[in-house]
Amino acid sequence: MAQAEIDTTAVNNKRLLVLGSTFAVGYTSLLLSLNKAWYSQEDKTDFHWFTDNRQWKQMDKVGHFWGAFHQSRAGIDMLRWAGVPEKKAVLYGGLLGVALQTPIEVFDGYQADYGASVGDMVANTVGSAAVVAQELAWQEVRVMPKYSFHTTRYADMRPNVLGSSLGEQALKDYNGQTYWLSVDVGAFLKEESRYPRWLNIAVGYGAQEMVFNDPESNAVAGLDAYRQYYLSPDLNLMHFKGRSKVWNTALYVLSIIKIPAPTLEYNRKHGLKLHPLYF
């Protein structure tokens, strides 16, 4: 028994070392990639703060929430994998979203056209807190933020801001992004319930006609930006976990994406609309 405890400790130390090394290399690569995609063509200035809470119909803030949530979710599960005690894994791993996003805000603070955003930092904090709260309350994630994207005509109108390639547009074109909260309904029901545990219900949020970041500039361009709200069925991919680590990892990664499905949309310009398949 004593030998087994020693071996387990050694394995955990090795895993922590792997996590630390992978994090350092991966995060450095991510920052370099973001700098090339987002900041390389921007003019630099002294660090400053910038109030952007009215811009892009808050789609950027929702994106920060989504990103921080899943970064913290990954941090928690990686510390669990390394054998860190449960509560410490949740609390320390849950800080990862804020830790990863804060340097990006520092980058923003040196850009002449914008700056570091308090609103972004609040969204990051709320995203990380959302996964920590669920883990502490339920020991699992029952409400999963998800993302979907489709290309739009607006990117061609301002490719330097909304993206010129598919990858850039997926990151920058808020017109094509939809963010969801996918609710694991079955987790809130009694065990004897016959409700299918693989079936989630998702509510989504998006916006359209945004070429410029503020309502006034959009109006001058003849655009009338508006919000969109969605209701759609969704798959609880984590329900399909099996024995294969590769399969389970794939499900884990894909669980951040909303699958295409029939969707009901409401917006102030067109009212209710049914999409046979929406992504």
From TrEMBL:
Q: Which InterPro entries match?
A: DUF2279_periplasmic_lipo
Q: Which domain of life is it from?
A: Bacteria
Q: Which Pfam families match?
A: DUF2279
- The protein's name is DUF2279 domain-containing protein
Q: Which organism is it from?
A: Pontibacter flavimaris
